[in-house]
Amino acid sequence: MDLRAVYLWGAVAFIALSVYAAVFLERPRIAYIARVYAALITIRSGLMVLTPMHIPEEALPLSGSALYDGAGRLFTVRHDLFFSLHTALPFLGFLAFRTDWVRWSCLAFSIVLGTTVLLGRNHYSLDVAAAYFITYAVYRLEARFLEARFLSRR
Q1: Is the peptide bond before 83 cis (omega within 30 degrees of 0)?
Q2: pLDDT at 16
Q3: How far apart are CA 57 and CA 63, in angstroms?
Q4: For 26-52, what is each residue's pLDDT tens digit?
Q5: Domain range annotation of the chain
Q6: HSE-CB for 105 with a 13 A CA cutoff
Q7: What is the pLDDT of residues 77-127, one digit of tens each?
Q8: Which end of the chain is more exposed for a tag (fewer CB within 10 A), N or C?
Q9: Distances (CA, A) of 95 to 56, 98, 112, 119
Q10: Is the dihedral of CA 107, 76, 10, 13 positive or negative?
């Protein structure tokens, strides 16, 4: 299915929501939010190196889209499959943000974008399923690390 518009513009909408929520609604927690997102991206970078999977042959090409050709290429790497950031980043927003409507919006983005990458054949089902498990693990590990760090200062 040709869901390139949802794939690209859905990601842009999620990023706009996240930046708005972090800056205007949860400013006291912005350092924590940035840190947990950085941890997730770092873990994914390591896993991409260890899991060199190729894009499915049936995947629709993203080049040719004004959004992708303009800015999208700056944020992607060839064969950056394992695990799906389109699924993981919004799911992490669901876990990390505290404002109810933002949390539930992030969960909806995660489900919609996860479904989009599957139907558009931009990811394998394992990439999408693993995104939820790995994101939750990173979130919990980061919370434990911060808890241990701040408790040891007392």
Answers
A1: yes
A2: 96
A3: 15
A4: 999 999 999 999 999 999 888 888 877
A5: 4-151
A6: 16
A7: 566 678 889 999 999 999 999 999 999 999 999 999 999 989 988 888 898
A8: C
A9: 30, 8, 17, 25
A10: positive
| Cα-Cα end-to-end distance for the chain | 55
Q: What's at 50, amino acid-wise?
A: L
Size of the chain in residues = 154
- Round to whole Å and give the CA distance between 54 and 78: 8
Mean pLDDT of 49-69: 70
